[in-house]
Write a structure and sequence with these properties.
Length: 253
Amino acid sequence: MHLLNVHLVGRSESLPAGGGSGIGRAVCARLAREGALVAVADCNEAGAAETLRGLPAGDHQAWGVDVGCSEGVAGLVGRVQTHYSRPATICVNCAGITTDEFLLKQTEEAFDAVLRVNLKGTFLVTQAVAQALVASGAPGGSIINMGSIVGKVGNLGQVNYAASKAGVEALTKTAAKELARYGIRCNTVLPGFVRSPMTDKVPQKVLDKFAAMVPLGRLGEPEDVADVCAFLASDESRYITGASVEVTGGLFI
Ligand code: NAD
């Protein structure tokens, strides 16, 4: 598998004691094992540093960023370019939050907060990385955005989250159409329910209910998603753009 040089990857939050990990951290580890140089970016700088410490030897970096802030994102993309003397050629947008509440009780603030990180953040990072790639004149690149199966089917208590993830999918398809002429591929990954700090907040009985509905018989692990990202980042997926890849164990098929 041939992977390009610099990866810009959102990181997962701090690990629960004993160790599961989030999707972004698993993506960092998988891409680093493929020989990529990984720029770990997250608003949780301590967590990003922890991810960095877990990577194999290489010129990997960890930087803080709030993906919802255009100045911050521009600064991050500039730091990647300066440090590696080239823009990120692979970008995996894993930053995301939930503030679950039923529609009848959802506050405007909670709605805005989730849209800001999940949808606007994906827009800002996708735009800044694509601009840097186009400006560099070097053809090619792979942008992978983290959607969710919930963006397709909805989910109780996640009116804001589901809307944000549906938006991520539409944004990515549009980016794929506009950026194809530059050789930049854009794809969405739609995880089902994956063990991570995000789902640690979900009551165990709800997780058990979802696990029982999964045809493959278990919840997902971050590595299940990371492996698909590695494929979408690689040349093996060279004829795939604008696609949404479900990584759900068959949930909701
Ligand atoms: P996670 O909470 O472990 O990771 C999310 C990361 O995003 C955290 O490290 C957090 O610090 C970071 N983040 C939050 N706000 C940010 C901001 N403003 N700027 C920069 N970073 C920010 O959760 P995860 O499960 O690893 O989720 C990763 C992605 O996968 C998210 O986009 C999530 O919506 C998506 N996803 C997760 C699941 C699941 O079941 N875990 C399912 C579908 C989609």
